[in-house]
Amino acid sequence: MSSFAPLQRLVVTVAIIASFVTFLDGTVVNVALPAISDELGGGITTQQWVVDAYLITLSALILLAGSLSDAYGRVFIMRIGLIAFGISSVAVAAALDPLTLIISRAAQGAAGALLVPSSLALITATMRGELQSRAIGIWTAFTTGAMVVGPLMGGLFVDLLSWRFVFLINVLPIAVTLVLLGRLHLPEHPRGTRVDWLSGALCAVGLGAVVFALIEQPLYGWAAPRIWITAVGGAALFTWFLLRQRHPETPMMPLSLFRVRNFGWGNLATLFVYAALALNGFVISVYLQQGAGLSATAAGLASLPVTILMILLSSRVGAWAGRLGPRLFMTVGPLMMAVGAMLLLTVAEDFSYWWQVLPSMIVLGVGLSLTVAPLTSAILGAIDADHSGIASAVNNAISRVAGLIVVAMLSTIVGGALDLGGFHSAAWVTAVLFALGGIVSWIGIRRDPIEATEPAQPAS
């Protein structure tokens, strides 16, 4: 980060560490799911809820958090989020039954919602142009790397200690970030605008109800009143939420943002790409343990090539996208990941990581490196700095909702059991989702000629 001014380096560092804990906790849990199920019970339904309880509150409240960030200041909201995330992480680690664990995970997701939009908005508010693209590339390398290295760290803790320690990993990063925040003095101008709490509740309850129906319907069937009433009611509440965004003076999710071409099409690409990533991460972590018989650590190591490639390539790809535009990268990257997902169809009963999984991980790693930084830069670079908090929140909410829905539909995708046939079914669905992300990017993404010639702005 030698080309950044001292304040900009501090901003990037804070943004990386603050986002790191939420990305890490969103994925580190995957490799711990079999151990959690063995100790607390509940089978695949408990496993789905442990993941989705976190994603429900994270994805629903991240929109509210974006509004809070713009209204009251990014640093202030981030500090509250860090403290709450630390407390809820301890509660998750101490849970003695599935219900307590799921409630604590929901609280953890709510705290995490305060972190991601605030942290990324620090970058978009202090840097523009090519410098912003490079900063986002660095942020992407570490935060997306956290998403992939999480299973490895989780596996080591599960095998050597206990799954409970998996949720205490982030205590040290939180403490470091709180110290760094004390040194970060930015000329923030909180707008003090009204926050639409009702919309936040409609979004959270609506999403939660739909996800409940999707997870529980394999057990009760769609004809059961508890399923179809919940699904219809949740969809109605979420529709009410969307309708409210057309009227308030300060909407949580300004629908006008989607009229900006790169923002609208980029978020559609986000929906497909991150749904595929969530499905792929969940299925690989669980199947390699329960189906292929690997230890938790070995299952975590399976995705290590993706992490290495992300760290090596993402910042460079971010700089290239800043000069050449994001369209080519956002097309080629997801299509490469679709090929990587298809390679998982070679997994057989006679399991071999080196020939059946490693080639897929390498292709996925290159494709992911080509995709994430240009995708993030294209979406947020299309929106002015005054709305950077809410723009970041919308994009992050969409990526989390994508994962939330696809994990909720897991039983349907794999045919009720994550055996070899279910694993192959998930690989097909993952490949299709990745390919749709690439196609959407080619159709919709353009290079903004004004943004392309805009010089990088130094931090004030």
From TrEMBL:
The UniProt entry lists membrane topology as: Multi-pass membrane protein
User: Which keywords accompany this UniProt record?
Assistant: Membrane, Transmembrane, Transmembrane helix
Tell me where the transmembrane regions lie: 12-37, 49-69, 76-96, 102-123, 135-157, 163-183, 195-215, 227-243, 264-288, 294-315, 327-347, 353-380, 401-420, 426-445
Q: Where is the Major facilitator superfamily (MFS) profile domain?
A: 11-449
Subcellular localization, as worded in the UniProt entry: Cell membrane
CDD domains, A to Z: MFS_MMR_MDR_like
What is the protein name for this chain? MFS transporter
This chain's source organism reads: Microbacterium bandirmense
Q: What is the lineage of its organism?
A: Bacteria, Bacillati, Actinomycetota, Actinomycetes, Micrococcales
